[in-house]
Amino acid sequence: MLVQGGILASAGLICSVIGLLYRGPLTGIIGDEGNGYYSSAYNIYNIVLLISSYSIPSAMSKIISQKLAVHEYRNAQRIFHCALLYVCVMGGLGSLFVFFGAPLFLDGYSIPVVRVFAPIIFIFGPLGVLRGYFQAHRTMIPTSVSQLAEQILNAVVSVGGAYFLVRFALSKGYDESTRAMYGAIGSALGTGSGVVIALLFMFLVYNINRDFIKRKVIHDHHEDMTYKEIFLMIIMFVTPFIFSTFIYQLSTSLNQTLFSKIMTGTKGLPHNEVITRFGVYSSKAVVITNFPIRIASAAAATIMPSISTYYAQKNYDGTAELVAKVNRIVMMIAIPSAAGLFALSEPILMLLFPQKSTLHEAGVLMQFLAITVVFYSLSTVSNAILQGIGRVNIPVINAAIALAVQTVVLVLLLLYTDLGNKSLAIVTIIYSLMMCILNGFAIGRSLDVHQNYKKLYLLPGISAVVMGGVAFGVYELFEFLIRFILKSDYFVNLAAVLFAIFAAVLVYAVMMVKTKAVTENELVSFPKGTSMIRLLKKVHIM
After folding, report:
1. Mean pLDDT score across all residues of the chain
2. What residue spans define the domains of the chain?
3. Distance in angstroms (rounded) separating the CA atoms of residues 422 and 369
4. Is residue 300 very low, low, confident or very high in pLDDT (cuts 50, 70, 90)?
5. How far is Cα 275 from Cα 264, in angstroms, rounded to an integer?
6. Of 28, 138, 154, 221, which one has the fewest beta carbons inside 10 Å?
7. Measured CA distances, 405 to 215, 246, 381 (Å)
8. What is the reported pTM?
9. Crossing angle for the helix pair 227-261 and 73-105, nearest 10 degrees?
10. Cα 362 versus chain centre, distance
11. What are the residues whose beta carbons fall under 8 Å from the beta carbon of 329, sequence distance 6 or more?
């Protein structure tokens, strides 16, 4: 699990790095207003996508892994074929709905952008099924490689498309808002091209493995499930996944709608300024804080087949032990990530989004959102655990409760305070914290998980606080010293951040070992754990 999760997490991190690197030049081309149009359209696209196709990988991974566990290879293959048909129908309907129904949800320049997203919904369905199929076979390599190919092409086409379309708009003498819209359309074309290349790669991998799959199917003598049973099973499994993810995504879109309507209608701010403020929040602060959460998403995808198999075999002790280990690993990464983002918020933002006019605003928002790295990491994994043990409706109920609470709080904050887009960050903290608490209670009622809370939260928390303080101090020191050598603010900041991150890694490693938050026996089970132990002993840390 650790190896496969490590592969998927590594791919996710590389994709996030690519995503962060291209967002900088993209923002320079389309501006914060263009980011606002893109984010508004992307949120609507994402909602329809997850209803039609997005939850398919997790659901297929769970269903097919259960069949593979009892060697029902032919039924697993029949489920795979039915799932492809299901997503083609649902994806086609979703694409038509977004294209023709865009004015129902958006206004102004966001409408043409979301219409570019519409065909991608249809294309994404088969891609999701293929990813879930291979995840059920306990290999994350095809999914990981397809994600890398998708993100690389997305980055190239997004920046290139935005650049050429903005140049085209300039040549026609269009105003600034129209140019921002054209730039957002170019970025949307990048998303579509990435999905297409990923789908082609996954079909290639499937064709390479087709003979091997056929041999297993031929030698399977289990009774075939009827197509009616299969479609009923898919609907029964997929629906809770859809609602859970839908409510999660709805919180983002609902927050965006409330923010836009109240700030323009009640507070009287110009529409383009409101879109810009939302763009700073969603396309800068949120983008960076989502980076470490990708690790939790990889862990969730990896443990789903194992959790489903163990629980189906009534191996409750093994299930609980797996849950405890996954929580430990995720928290060992999420807690220092949150501390690092808080301590170096503005320096990190300046590396990727060097627009000084909104640097401080984005930095404050990122400090608010840093805490959600911990909460969202836990809630993402706990969602997968509950779905894996068959409690698929509980995450839906919990998400609905959290959404209702955060919506009421957001309306009150927007109407009666001048917090502006900080209100969005505050309610995001509330939503993610409630999901953690509610999911945690639900898991406790189903599994007897023995968790060492001192090693889970306290010791990594202390280590992360010390690490964050050292990182901030090292940054300030080197930023002061390097100014005597370099004149460019950007390169001064870059060098100081690199020194600060290097120091932070060392300090966190030393603190975790010295406080016994992680032991030698635990490190052995990690990928490359033996090499890490040798290195720690060589430098006399362990």
Report:
1. 84
2. 2-451, 474-542
3. 10
4. confident
5. 10
6. 221
7. 53, 17, 22
8. 0.74
9. 30
10. 19
11. 2, 299
